[in-house]
Structure formats: structure tokens, C-alpha cells
Amino acid sequence: MRYLVTGGAGFVGSHVVLALLDAGHDVAVLDNFSTGHRAAVPEGVPVYHVDLMDDQATANVLGDKPWDGVLHFASLSLVGASMADSFHYLRQNYVTGLNLVQACAAHGVKKIVFSSTAALFGGPERAEPIPETALVQPDSPYGESKFMVERILHWADRLYGVKSACLRYFNAAGADPHGRAGEDHRPETHLIPLAIDVALGRRSALRLFGTDYPTHDGSCIRDYIHVTDLADAHIRVLDQIGARSVVYNLGNGRGYSNLEVIQSVERVSGCRVAWEKAGRRPGDAAVLVADSTSLRQDTGWTPQWSTLDKIVETTLQWRKNNPEGYTR
Ligand SMILES: NC(=O)c1ccc[n+]([C@@H]2O[C@H](COP(=O)([O-])OP(=O)(O)OC[C@H]3O[C@@H](n4cnc5c(N)ncnc54)[C@H](O)[C@@H]3O)[C@@H](O)[C@H]2O)c1
Hints:
alpha/beta; Rossmann fold; UDP-galactose 4-epimerase, domain 1; four-stranded mixed β-sheet; 10 helices; about 40% helix; globular; carbohydrate metabolism
């Protein structure tokens, strides 16, 4: 099959490109390299250097070849930045999604897999894993913008027969176990790479946002899913969305507090992670843990790499081997 991956130069997209290639598919990447890296795209994979805000250029890519499906990762994705620059976030994520889905409908592309997010649940503090049926009530423009794209996909199915899978990721983390790709956000805001950088002496201390949440140790609880398991879910879902559109939560089903993450990094690296208290960040929920039962039941997906220590181990290895991250 031939697949187009938007945002394939980014963290999650680059790992899914590898999984698609490993599964024997033809892959091309569409990216504007705003946060992605050239070197994250494997040699030989064609690249369209295009901004999805440009509807004509986007339509040209979709019309360039007969695509069997599109995987849509390209997005702005920081909760905090979306609180500060809300209209920019809403516009970018909505318009890029609309341009892409419209071009897919116009060119007869019938399958789209979309990176949605647990941030669209937001809202009340929960101790229970969140099912797909939970109330959508985003706490941030970022979460809202993802839900807006889910709604575009709903109408694309109803009116144009474009089938989609909206995968509501919880926290993607880890790195390719073969060392071919890793996480390199600039600036990095994700806890695991930041804690590892402190352990490796590349940062002085970690700022822990909120230590007074109603959790067992006062820090936020998140569900970390290894990016290789996440990629595997995309491959399985692609096989499955021929007949109907689906929405799945995609997580490990087990939450770890920020302090437990720090302990794991200390355990795996053998180094101390200095941290300091900081205030809560607006838009952060206390607990976000996925109930991914429907994905497991429908596709047979079972995470293989998603214990916290394995996630930390693969991230540590990648950061040790790539001290500067991607160099282009
Ligand atoms: N990383 C996570 O934990 C996580 C959690 C939930 C959801 N998600 C979603 O998964 C997707 C991938 O996340 P990531 O961590 O890999 O992000 P990332 O920033 O590493 O990758 C995004 C990619 O999209 C590209 N891009 C952004 N805007 C574009 C545009 N207008 N046109 C073309 N390309 C554009 C960037 O250059 C980059 O390569 C995002 O949609 C994000 O919202 C990620």
C-alpha cells in the first residue's frame, strides 16, 4: 500500500514511518519542518516540503499519486502554548486538518488515521481509566482543536465516505528500540526526556509543575505509551478501517505520577535527578489514564514496550547516542 504521512519528520510520525516501511509499505512524508527534522525521515523516503495551511499545495500532493491512505500527525501540540496563543492554535490545527481532509475527499482517498489526544477529555479529576465514551470537554484550545478535526472527519465520512480512525493518544514516549529514531522537540517540554537530560548532566534541575494535585504523591498522573507500540497500533488500525470509522483511546491503561517517572529515570540511569517545585500549569488535568479496551479487542493490539522502565531505557539510549539530537 502507498501511504502519505503528514508530520512524518516529527517524533511520532517518524516512528510510524519506520513501522510502515518495516511492514513493507510505500511511504512519503509531507512536512513543513517547523518542529520536525530532515534527518528523522529515513533515506529514500520521498518528502513533500509543504505547509498544510496552503490548501493548493496540499491538494497537489494528494493529487500527485493514488494514495491508499493518509496518516495525519502534523499539528501544533503544546497545551501550554495553546493557552497563551489560543486563536493561533485553533486556526492552525483546524485549517490544516480541513485542507488535508478536503483534499483527501477530492482525490478519493478513503482512509485517514488522525493523531488526536487525551487532552480533549480535560475536565474533572478522575481516578478511573477514561473510555472513548467519556464526555469531551477540552481544558485547552489544543484539545479543542483536535476535537474540531475529529468533527471534520465525521462529516468527511458521512458526506464523502472517507473512513477514519481518530486515535486519542495519551503520553507518547520512548524511542525506536533499534536506535533509528527518537524524541527531539525544541524546546523539549515532555517529562521523560527532560528528566533524562538532568540525569545526564545536560540540565541543572527539572521543574515539577504542580505538587498539590489530589493524587497519592501530589504530582500529576499520566499514561505513557511507548512510541513503538503506538506505531504498531497505527498499522493494525489501517487494516481495520476499511468498513467504518472508529475512535480509539490509545494508552497503556496504567498511570504513573511525575515523581514515579523521576524515580524510574534514577533507577534506569543510576543518576540522581534534581527537581524543584513549580506551580500548576493552566490546562493540565490531575489524572489522565486510558481505557484502550476497544482498540485491544478490535485489533488484537497489545503493548510490548510500554513499561515505564523500558520507555525510559530506550529514551536514555537514544539521548546518549544522539547528544545533539537530530543534526539536521
Ligand atoms: N507526543 C505526544 O505525547 C502526543 C500526545 C497526544 C497527541 N499527540 C499528537 O501526535 C501528533 C504528533 O506529535 P509529535 O510529538 O510527533 O509532534 P512533533 O512536533 O514532533 O511533530 C509534528 C510534525 O508536524 C510538522 N508540522 C507541524 N505543522 C505543520 C504544517 N502546518 N504543515 C506541515 N507539517 C507541519 C512538524 O514539522 C513536525 O514534523 C501531533 O498531532 C500531536 O498533537 C502527540
